[in-house]
Automatic annotation (TrEMBL):
Family: Belongs to the ComB family.
UniProt-listed SUPFAM superfamilies: ComB-like (SSF142823)
Coiled coil: none
EC number(s) reported in the record: 3.1.3.71
Protein name in the entry: Probable 2-phosphosulfolactate phosphatase
Alphabetic keyword roster: Hydrolase, Magnesium
Originating species: Fibrella forsythiae
Length: 236
């Protein structure tokens, strides 16, 4: 039987073998939620890069550019890290360069996988339906926060494991932990996350609407996939 595993932070990725695995990267607050929203609203592609300098270089080549560090927009860039910024018809068909504190770094570290997908609660059902058709094992890579584990990405991993529980075996403690956490909190994720460290960071910035939005399930039938150096919307 196929297996699903969870890597709780990119700093633990070296302990996993992903060469024969589909990796689903999750940075719920807010990078992967932004990416899913952007594709749902017609963005052509997103180039995820690890550093601000790489993103600035692409901006200078004519790309629209989004840069976030410590949950705030880096000065001089075109877009921020709020999913609401990507609900703009003027972005339809555009190519965007993006760097974030955690999410884009996790994506760039996953390139040796069979496929790299972008996951969030917003496209949870679309991701699960696609994975049921695949023959490979799956690993959810939680972007975390600067190498540390965070609760929201772990809950997403548990949610995906829950959706796939009849198709994928859960053997490792990390996926069992994530699944149990999700089952405990799934009836009210906002309340369950009330004391989560990154949620508190975002609340201090006054962006509660982003938090509520990113925790909605199954809004979009979108599966972003990494092809070459760019994320594109997969036809599923």
């Amino acid at each position: 039987m196929k297996q699903i595993d969870v890597c709780l932070t990119p700093d633990l990725l070296h302990l996993h073998t992903i060469d024969n695995t589909i990796v689903v990267v999750a940075d719920v607050f807010r990078a992967t939620s932004c990416m899913v929203t952007a594709f749902a609203y017609g963005v052509g592609s997103i180039i995820p890069v690890a550093t601000v300098d790489e993103c600035r270089a692409l901006q200078q080549r004519g790309y629209l550019a989004a840069a976030e560090r410590n949950a705030q927009t880096v000065e001089g860039f075109d877009l921020d890290n709020s999913p609401f910024s990507y609900m703009d018809e003027r972005l339809e068909g555009t190519d965007i360069a993006m760097t974030t504190t955690n999410g884009t770094l996790a994506i760039t570290r996953s390139r040796s996988a069979v496929k790299v997908l972008v996951g969030s609660f917003l496209n949870l059902d679309a991701i699960a339906r696609y994975l049921r058709t695949q023959t490979y094992d799956v690993m959810v890579l939680c972007a975390g926060w600067k190498g540390r584990v965070n609760l929201e990405d772990t809950l997403f991993a548990g949610a995906l494991a829950h959706r796939l529980r009849d198709d994928y075996a859960m053997h490792e403690d990390s996926v069992l932990l994530a699944h149990r956490l999700y089952c405990d909190g799934k009836d009210n994720l906002v309340s369950y996350l009330a004391n989560a460290s990154h949620l508190r960071r975002l609340q201090r910035l006054g962006i509660q609407k982003d938090i509520a939005y990113c925790l909605q399930h199954d809004l979009y039938d979108v599966v972003p996939v990494l092809r070459g150096g760019s994320l594109v919307k997969m036809e599923v």
